[in-house]
Each structure stands twice: as structure tokens, then as C-alpha cells.
Amino acid sequence: MPTLVLLRHGQSQWNLENRFTGWVDVDLTAEGEAQARRGGELIKEQGIEIDRAFTSVLTRAIRTCNLALDAAGQTYVPVTKDWHLNERHYGGLTGLDKAETAAKHGEDQVRVWRRSYDVPPPPLDAGGEYDFKADRRYAGAELPDTESLKTTLDRVLPFWDGAITPALTSGDTVLVAAHGNSIRAILKLLFNLSEEAILDVEVPTSNPLVIELDAGLKPVSARYLDASRANPVPVLVG
Ligand SMILES: O=C(O)[C@@H](CO)OP(=O)(O)O
């Protein structure tokens, strides 16, 4: 049975500082590293054998992937890194303090920017500190200057279809170590969630979400391995 393990990266420095992060390449905190190792230990305790891993090109997800595989005793697993699994691009909010932004624009507006399906934050100013166009990891890519969850899903989808689906279809157990919103995009797709339902889906840091799939890649079960930090798992619609 194809199995997908979704793993959000451990706590990052800007998770801790409560700043809009998106594509900024902040590292894990010591707590985030410990969370990543714990995620791997849980994978090991459950006897889950990963065949292929996929992660973004952002340090916090790559290191979470590596730390988790190490702790699971599966350092040798092949890992593919691709920017299509990056966090949602936070546009002009990138780097701002979330609480200060809520005080300035109101809690409701910030919730719309953070959790609505198709309302993107204001675009990033070109040429500023957080313009990633000159970053060689994105060479040749058509880069967004902001993303909603919908446009995040639009760019995750070709990678999902082109790289992850074939691995799952061949029966592999696949680890995807990614980000809160790239994982929410995958959950919306897999569980056929409505735009309203996805609003309330929060993915805890480094808590492996194990999803067993049928041959058509429809979820048949889903559970977080750390039950003490588990959020409600999505329920398949239709
Ligand atoms: O800042 C970010 O990039 C994301 C993930 O940490 O935050 P949120 O989606 O919770 O606003």
C-alpha cells in the first residue's frame, strides 16, 4: 500500500520570533532540531521504512529531512530537493512581525492573508532584501512575488504529479519534508478539502503525518505519530 509521510520542518528561528517567513532561508532553532530528531525516532519506533524523500530548497526543511532520516536510522534514503515544495511566498509581508502586522492591519485581515485559500498578501517590492531572483537555486525559474495557498498549490502540483505521484504509484513509502503551507496545499489536494475546510487546517512542526493511500492514491487512513501534539487530521471529502 503506498504510504505518504508528511513532515513539516521543526521550529525555525522566525517561527520563534513570530515573523512572516515564506522563502527566507532561516535555520532551525535547537528546539527545532530536537523536534526533527524526535520525528525520525517516531518513524523508527513505528517500523516505517522510507524509500524516497522529497524536500524543498530551504535549509529548515532540508535539515529536518536529514535529521529525521538520521534518527530513523535511514540516512541512506535518496532525497530530492525542489523549490516547488518551498513554503508559500509571503510577498510584501516577508520578514514582518506577525503581531505588529495584526495590530496595524487588524486580526481579520492578517487571518485572511495567512489562512484564506485565494487571497495573496501584497506583492514583494522588486530589488529589496527578500527578492530571490538573483539566488542561484532559482535560476531559470519563473518566480512569484507573492502567493496565496491556491497559487502555492498551482506550483506544487506539477512536482506532485511529475515526481511524487510516480513514486507512490510504484508502491514506495515516501517522506515529504516541507512547510506549513506547501503541506496544506498537498492536504487540500489529497483530501479534496473545500476552501472553507482548509482554512482551519494547521500542521504541527515535525510531527509525522502518516497517510496510507489506495491504488488510486486516495487516502484510506491518516494519523499523526506524536499523539500528544496532534491536530485534527483532515477527512476525505467525496
Ligand atoms: O511564516 C510563514 O512562512 C508561515 C509558516 O511558518 O507562517 P503562517 O502560514 O503560519 O503564517
UniProtKB/TrEMBL annotation:
What positions does the entry give for substrate binding? 8-15, 21-22, 60, 87-90, 98, 114-115, 180-181
- Which keywords does this Swiss-Prot/TrEMBL entry list? Gluconeogenesis, Glycolysis, Isomerase
Q: Name one GO molecular function term.
A: phosphoglycerate mutase activity
Q: In which pathway does it act?
A: Carbohydrate degradation; glycolysis; pyruvate from D-glyceraldehyde 3-phosphate: step 3/5
Site, Transition state stabilizer: residue positions: 179
Query: How is the quaternary structure described?
Result: Homodimer.
Q: What is this protein called?
A: 2,3-bisphosphoglycerate-dependent phosphoglycerate mutase
**What's the encoding gene here?**
gpmA
